[in-house]
Amino acid sequence: MQKLYTGRYVNLQALAQEINSILLQEGWESTVQPMMIGNPQYQDYMIRGLKKGHFHHAEELIVRVTGSPSEFRIIIEEEHIGPLGRELINRRLLKQIEKEINDGLFDLPMQQPTMQPINQQITPTVPSQQPIAPQAPQQIRCPQCGYLNPPGAKFCINCGARLA
């Protein structure tokens, strides 16, 4: 099963971490593995979930979050998934992630070029006053790893931690 998302600019690392945390909350053994890709614009994360049941029966779930921040896929591969595992996938995991994506929980600020006029002088209205320079928005320092993130970021670009 897979779903394509477009039209948003999403922090894929934070999205993968959220999927992992949902699996952990539901009692699965789960890890996130970033896959190495040569293209820096393309990201690929694999979340492996394993839930051991009775009589050595194990359910295995692989969720891949792959693509670019503006166009990505969530791909779910399952093996030996029973009714409870399928319920988790359909109701808890997919519906919650869909809602959080639509609510903008993982949105990154759009990187838009700013147009700066060249050699433009600002003349003060009163000769004795200096022109006031516009204030640049402050970068947000990640409380977990210390990385400086762009203004308006909700998650750290470096480690995926939620920013205040």
Layout: helices, strands, pairs:
Blueprint: E1 2-6, H1 12-25, E2 29-34, E3 43-52, E4 58-68, E5 71-79, H2 83-102, E6 140-141, E7 148-149
Antiparallel strand pairs: 1-5, 2-3, 3-4, 4-5, 6-7
Defining traits:
single chain; alpha+beta; TATA-Binding Protein; 2 helices
Please explain how this structure is put together.
The chain has 164 residues and is an alpha+beta fold. It folds into two domains: 2-102, TATA-Binding Protein, CATH 3.30.310; 137-164. The chain contains two helices and seven strands; from the N terminus they run E-H-E-E-E-E-H-E-E. The longest helix has 20 residues, at 83-102. The protein is elongated. 24% of the residues are buried. It comes from Acidianus hospitalis (strain W1).
In short:
By secondary structure, this protein is of the alpha+beta class.
Q: Supply the CATH class of the largest domain.
A: Alpha Beta
Strand content: 25-35%
What's the rounded overall pLDDT mean? 79
Q: What's the order of the H and E elements?
A: EHEEEEHEE
